[in-house]
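Appendix B. Raw example, untouched.
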Amino acid sequence: IFVSVAERAVVFRNVDIPLQQIDKEKRQESVYLTKFLAAVASGLFDAALNYLWDETIQEIRKRVIQYDVSYFYDNATHEEKRKKLHGPEDIVKLDDSELIQGARNIGLISELGYKHLDYIRYMRNWASAAHPNQNQLTGLQLISWLETCIKEVISLPLSNICLLYTSDAA
């Protein structure tokens, strides 16, 4: 059930490198990254992967909402589902695969970033605490996934282009 102390040490020896890509203020506000580190320390790598994914999805949602949620809905899902999506509060109605695919479709994440995130999503679904399984995750896998999520989503600045446009129009 618990990952060995040696595997936990692998994560803690390497975690500073990806975390330094996030500014200090944002690190302090990243509740799920804190939970990620607590799960690693406890040897619960399957839970750590869940928390990392939760942080990533939360950050994608923030960026989509700040960008242009209507445009995003138009590009993220099929026509029938689109009819049920109206404002920012509806973003939780999209599943994670639709969310990351839509983010790629509107250019919030790159094609390569999308592929990496889709793989992490797959691993989160089939090798984490999200579903019963007997898979073992390693410290280097977690560090790699952490680095990818930070680089492709979490460390990206929030765009204020749409906010400036809407405030000028008011």
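End of appendix B.
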